[in-house]
Design a protein that fits this description.
single chain, 134 residues, alpha+beta, Thiol Ester Dehydrase, Chain A, 3 helices, 6 strands, elongated
């Protein structure tokens, strides 16, 4: 499984009424990191759709806080993606400050064909996608 590391500084818009990162904002930070990783390997959302008529869709999402994150925290986000079987892409994100694990996100994604209004599940990941994530 290939790893990708990016960094974010937690802004005030990510903070909830309790003064720490909001659950939904944690998921958005993970989404942003996943997309940055996909772009770095040539599988960005726009290129998938425009060049191939394909899209990755979220099937399941899990976020787990280990320790709180606060405004101003500079967070390392380690992203890993791997294929499971023929249909599923597993996405993992770990949020760290130094060596301390603060939170994790796990997403299960599937790929669909998009043609006009029609959307159908891809029965087998294209070989070029398999090569990127294996």
């Amino acid at each position: 499984m290939k790893k990708f590391i990016t960094f974010r500084t937690i802004g005030p818009d990510a903070i909830d009424g309790l003064g720490h990162v909001n659950f939904a904002k944690l998921q958005l930070l993970a989404l942003d990191a996943f997309e940055e990783y996909r772009l770095s390997v040539g599988v960005g959302i726009e290129s998938l759709l425009q060049d191939h008529g394909l899209a990755l869709v979220l099937r399941r999402s899990l976020a787990d806080y280990k320790k709180e994150l606060f405004e101003g925290d500079h967070v390392e986000i380690e992203v890993q993606m791997r294929l499971r079987g023929e249909l599923i892409l597993l996405c993992y994100a770990q949020f760290r400050i130094g060596s301390k694990l603060k939170a994790t996100c796990k997403w299960v994604m599937a790929m669909i064909h998009i043609s006009g209004e029609d959307r159908t599940l891809v029965k087998k990941m294209p070989e070029w996608i398999r090569q990127v994530f294996e």
